[in-house]
Write a structure and sequence with these properties.
99 residues; elongated
Length: 99
Amino acid sequence: MNAPRERLQSRHWFGKTMAGLVLGYALAVALSGVIALLTPGGLGGEGKIQFNMWMIPPLWATVLGFVFLFRDGRRAWSWLGLATVAAFGLLWALKAWLG
């Protein structure tokens, strides 16, 4: 029979918070770059650099807010690490494809 699932506890908050701060920031930077490449004008453009810079805090805050839904810090680090690597991989592939 399956073991009962562990309930969410506040004792894992430090690991989750650090994952959200470190990997959440990296994920927000990568997603901002992906958004910049997929919108008209590419990475540059009039006012686009400023817009992309201001996209990072809301993305980062969203990740930081949702990081507490993970059961523990290890899972937060694992999933956010995987998402960050995937986002930077997508950014690299888009830059290579779009020139």
